[in-house]
Design goal:
Elements: H1 2-15, E1 49-54, E2 59-64, E3 68-75, E4 78-81, E5 88-90, E6 94-98, E7 103-108, E8 112-119, H2 127-135, E9 146-147, H3 150-164, H4 170-186, H5 190-196, H6 198-214, H7 221-228, H8 232-243, H9 247-265, H10 270-276, H11 282-293, H12 297-305
Antiparallel strand pairs: 1-8, 2-7, 3-6, 3-8, 4-5, 4-7, 6-9
Helix pairs in contact: 2-5, 3-4, 7-8
Length: 320
């Protein structure tokens, strides 16, 4: 009898909607919407990680890279032409690296999507693992694109969506770049990675060698760029990324170091030193020494002969 009474009361409560209002179920919003705009933030990304969606036929003419880059293919067919990958067609899931200073041409054979990570220094989480890779770097007989591991592909697809939304937070991009490289350097065997990263060391060493062998021979940045087969703009960007300072400022500082060594540690005539470093007159050379070391060439040599160690007192930042 009690059970019947309870059922009747429950039935009454369910039908008497004018007396009791049951709460409505909560409706979840599954749409992905950000409520902040990072584009004006001083920590906004400067384009180190980029998503590209190219139509068929889009062409990037051959040009020398002013930074290292790793390209992660998401969709389509992309023709790459470089020393490492001459006329190679990249497909979905392929990964290639091109080093700073290498000459690369790209052509979209179909509609194409990919991510490209630009860097001077690799954004690494595990320095020990990266050093192991570089220390074992060997040139492969034939360069072959890496095939994306499932974890790396998932990370790449997520990043694609974030970047398409306009995500530009520099700290976030840096964090995700490190995640990409962490997955890349930890989910492939060492021999594969050593071949993959080999171009970084070779191009860097060859560019340093070119600079050190030729900076004393050139009179200006344009001549320096032409000697290396670069456009002036590309050479300036490449040099700044490699050395951290503009070309002409670096050359001036090297000139100061050389002049100071010659005045302190050689018996070469001052006129010969002036000519060696390209000065048009002794007065110009004397003015340069006063601005850089605080005294005339002859006085500097006399002070050095008395045991005084002379140092550079001024390194003028030169706008190119």
């Amino acid at each position: 009898m009690q059970n019947c009474t309870l059922l009747i009361k429950m039935s009454y409560l369910c039908t008497a909607t004018n007396k009791i209002r049951l709460p409505r179920p909560m409706i979840r919003n599954f749409s992905c919407k950000r409520f902040s705009d990072c584009s004006q933030c001083p920590k906004a990304s400067e384009g180190s990680l980029v998503y590209r969606d190219l139509p068929r036929g889009e062409h990037f003419p051959a040009d020398k890279c002013t930074q290292n880059f790793i390209l992660f293919m998401i969709r389509g067919e992309l023709l790459i032409n470089s020393e490492e990958y001459p006329g190679k067609t990249l497909h979905e899931g392929h990964i290639v690296l091109q080093a700073i200073g290498s000459k690369v041409e790209l052509l979209a054979l179909t509609d194409v999507e990919y991510l490209v990570l630009w860097f001077n220094e690799l954004p690494i989480l595990c320095e020990e693992r990266y050093n192991e890779i570089i220390n074992n770097a060997e040139a492969p007989t034939t360069y072959t694109p890496l095939q994306m591991h499932n974890r790396l592909m998932s990370c790449t697809l997520d990043l694609k969506e974030y970047l398409k939304e306009g995500m530009s937070c520099g700290l976030y991009v840096e964090m995700k770049s490190k995640e990409l490289i962490y997955l890349l350097t930890n989910y492939y065997p060492l021999p594969q990675l050593s071949s993959f990263f080999y171009p970084i060391s070779t191009y860097t060493e060859s560019f340093h060698f070119f600079v050190l062998q030729n900076y004393e021979k050139v009179k200006n940045v344009e001549e320096f760029a032409h000697l290396g087969g670069y456009s002036t703009t590309t050479f300036r960007r490449l040099f700044k990324n490699m050395y951290g300072v503009p070309v002409y400022e670096w050359i001036l500082n090297k000139k100061r170091e050389g002049i100071l060594d010659d005045l302190q540690f050689t018996t070469d005539r001052i006129g010969d030193i002036s000519q060696r470093y390209g000065f048009d007159s002794m007065s110009h050379f004397a003015h340069f020494c006063k601005a850089s070391f605080g005294d005339t060439p002859r006085s500097l040599r006399n002070r050095a002969a008395q045991g005084e160690k002379i140092s550079i007192i001024k390194e003028v930042v030169v706008e190119e």
